[in-house]
Design a protein that fits this description.
The structure holds 2 protein chains of 2 kinds. Chain A is mainly beta. Helix content of chain A is 0%, strand content 59%. Chain B is mainly beta. Helix content of chain B is 0%, strand content 53%. Classes of the chains: A mainly beta, B mainly beta. Chain A binds chain B through residues 6, 32, 42-44, 46, 49, 51, 88, 90, 92, 94, 97-106, 108, and chain B through 32, 34, 36, 41-46, 49, 51, 90, 94, 98-102, 104-107.
Chain lengths: 112, 114
């Protein structure tokens, strides 16, 4: 069966510090991968999606970036965090058809 | 482009009562429809999906939803809720025939009181 991992689970970082969140998927190949952010009390905001290695699309211009160094690994990064980057970050994957998505447990990021 | 409207941001209900969470969508093409549940501090979990076939779809945890094409709705129902159903529920839509990007509603918070 397929599983998706995210780490760390929680993170407290000062403003201006770098960020690296990691997501890996097991039990499937060539998944579509997604990064979402949830601000407190709000819905899902799609940040990045990838339909293959070296194929990453950004949905929202900001100080975040994403990379996919391996087929089942998706990394969210920032060089300098802002207060507004605080939120709950969710990684998800879908199969080739791209229909239903399967979400990881999330990372709670607090920028202080 | 498609859009999803979840009409209620919060639905309070007593335990063992029935509940309906409303979802309406708009799209110029055929769509696939989904409901997800998110428990506090967790990721989203797929409850059920409509791709084709019977318009009444049964999902996990006793939930079901009915696709109504004429009313462009996909309401989620449960005949008797439990305290453990307290969570955030998201409706989502994808274009049929290939779209990697679903559109999510803003979510409905279901609060079950004892």
């Amino acid at each position: 069966s397929q599983t998706i991992h995210q780490w760390p689970a929680t993170l407290v970082q000062p403003v201006g510090s770098p960020l690296s969140l990691e997501c890996t998927v097991e039990g499937t190949s060539n998944p579509n991968l997604y990064w979402y952010r949830q601000a407190a009390g709000r819905g899902l905001q799609l940040l990045f999606y990838s339909i293959g290695i070296d194929q990453i699309s950004s949905e929202v211009p900001q100080n975040l970036s994403a990379s996919r160094p391996q087929d089942r690994q998706f990394i969210l990064s920032s060089k300098k965090l802002l207060l507004s980057d605080s939120g709950f970050y969710l990684c998800a994957w879908s199969g080739v058809t791209g229909y239903e998505q399967y979400f990881g447990p999330g990372t709670r990021l607090t920028v202080t | 482009a498609q859009s999803v409207t979840q009409l209620d941001s919060q639905v309070p209900v007593f335990e063992e009562a029935p509940v309906e969470l409303r979802c309406n969508y708009s799209s110029s093409v055929s769509v696939y429809l989904f409901w997800y549940v998110q428990y506090p501090n967790q990721g989203l979990q797929l409850l059920l999906k409509y791709l084709s076939g019977s318009t009444l779809v049964k999902g996990i945890n006793g939930f079901e939803a009915e696709f109504n094409k004429s009313q462009t709705s996909f309401h989620l129902r449960k005949p008797s809720v439990h305290i453990s159903d307290t969570a955030e529920y998201f409706c989502a839509v994808s274009k049929s025939g290939g779209s990697y990007i679903p559109t999510f509603g803003r979510g409905t918070s279901l609060i079950v009181h004892p």
